[in-house]
Amino acid sequence: MSIYRHMNRFVYRLVVLTFLLSWFSVAKADLTIEIDHSSTNATPIAIVPFEWKDPNDAPPQDLAQIIGADLDRSGKFRPVDDAKLPARPSKLEDINFPDWRALGADNMLIGSIQKNAQGNYDIEMRFIDILRQEQVIGKKWTNIPARLLRQVAHVISDMLYKELTGIRGAYNTKIAYVVVRKVDGKRQYSLEIADSDGFNAQPILKSSEPIMSPSWSPDGKQLAYVSFENGRSEIVLQSLDGKMRKIIAKFKGINGAPAWSPDGKNLALTLSKDGSADIYIMNMKTGKLRRITRNLAIETESTWAPNGHSLFFNSDRRGQPQIFQAFLDTGEIRRISFIGRYNSNPAVSPDGRYVAMINGNNNGFNVALLDLYTNDFRLMTKTYLDESPSFSPNGEMILYAMNKNGKARLAVVSIDNSVTQVLSVKDGEVRAPSWGPYLN
User: Fold this and answer.
1) What is the pLDDT of residue 179?
2) What's the burial of 326, exposed, middle or buried (CB within 10 Å: 0-12/13-18/19+)?
3) pTM of the model
4) Between 104 and 161, residue with greater pLDDT
5) Contact 40, 101 (CB under 8 A)
């Protein structure tokens, strides 16, 4: 595939595809995670199975297993094998610390879960510093419905990650993506929402034609995306509670690549209503447009700097797709990518330090990371035909679409490149990922 063909896929999809939208409900199909590589330098941590007193009525979720999987996926921590745990304590006074020090782990998680009279669950957890022989975190949750047990496990994972790294965890967050399946020989597309680990997948719309470019609002309550339900590209705004859906851009020509401003007051768009494909900003309260770029080249895939003062976007104004930065106060436009003949799909880390992008090279199209402080540029992946990088809200991971064995899947790579994971569905292909914000 040539560089130009890769670049033109976006425009081609916008121009020629049609879209048919309908609500639907189907059995959920969670993403399956395969961890390709784990760091040998990961810190061991003991995650003790939570105490459960009734062997004949086990809770529907194994909290310790979920928490261990969360921390393992970070690449920073390695849960000790369950078979090697010297005991199953659930209280501080039950811990024989010499046994745990011999295990080589400095920290351990213990806890209990009980079913109450309402049929819900009471949970207690304690995070222990083994060397100091003291509890550093202790918390209880009461009357938790079964459907929220996984969420409690992710909250515990976030607490442990913050305690151990000083960085807020991002396990209790959501991701959006598009799944493509074959139904009666025809392609069917669905926009789905899932937990950050791919579980609890919920489709929010279904189409016989592609769905593109989902973008989360900063409060995590709405998605903007591109649809073709009326035979042309249109940008749709939809609330995740199902109460609101409306078309917000249906101009002549291309309507694509929506991206929310950090304060949620504006949406950056790619429009060709004035001839060429350029970047515009829509005021979400008034609907008024502000044109940011004026160039005959294709200008698209914009994303906001965290301070809201500039936009990063993809343009072939220099003959090949590269990443540029437009400063909204001065109008200055500056090229920022110089390594390689092809760079597209910019995504900015939450702290504004890094720009992830797709770099075209002899090995295909890979996720690359540009450090705006040092200008260090490095390839992050060894996969093929990567697309749509998206940072986790804590900036520690990058979610992206890739191709493996001829099938589109999602993958996650840690910012330090110590671990990668592949997320796939058994009955389809997954693409166009977008990592949502913190929910509280």
Assistant:
1) 93
2) buried
3) 0.89
4) 161
5) no
Q: Give the DSSP letter of residue 317.
A: T
From the number of C-beta atoms within 10 Å of its C-beta (0-12, 13-18, 19+), residue 52 rates as: middle
Cα angle 77-158-306, degrees, rounded to a multiple of 5:
105
In sequence order, the β-bridge partners of residue 215 are: 224
Q: For the chain, what is the total number of helices (H) and then of strands (E)?
A: 4, 31
Q: What is the pLDDT of residues 355-386, one digit of tens each?
A: 999 999 888 899 999 999 999 999 999 888 99
**Rounded Cα distance, 277 and 103, in Å:** 60
Name the phi and psi angles at 49, rounded to 5. Answer: -50, 135
- List all residues 6 or more positions away from 203 whose beta carbon is below 8 Å from its beta carbon: 24, 25, 26, 28, 179, 190, 191, 192
Are 128 and 102 a contacting pair, CB within 8 Å?
Answer: no
The DSSP 8-state label assigned to residue 319 in this structure reads: S
Measuring CA to CA, which residue among 157, 155, 137, 148 is closest to residue 70?
157
Contact status, residue 250 vs residue 256, Cβ threshold 8 Å: no
Chain-centre distance for alpha carbon 191: 14
Distance CA 344, CA 195 (A): 27
The terminus-to-terminus CA distance of the chain in angstroms comes to 43
Q: What are phi and psi of 99, to 5 degrees?
A: -60, -40
Question: Percent of the chain at pLDDT above 90?
Answer: 75
Residue pair 261/267 in contact by the 8 Å Cβ criterion: yes
Distance CA 400, CA 377 (A): 18
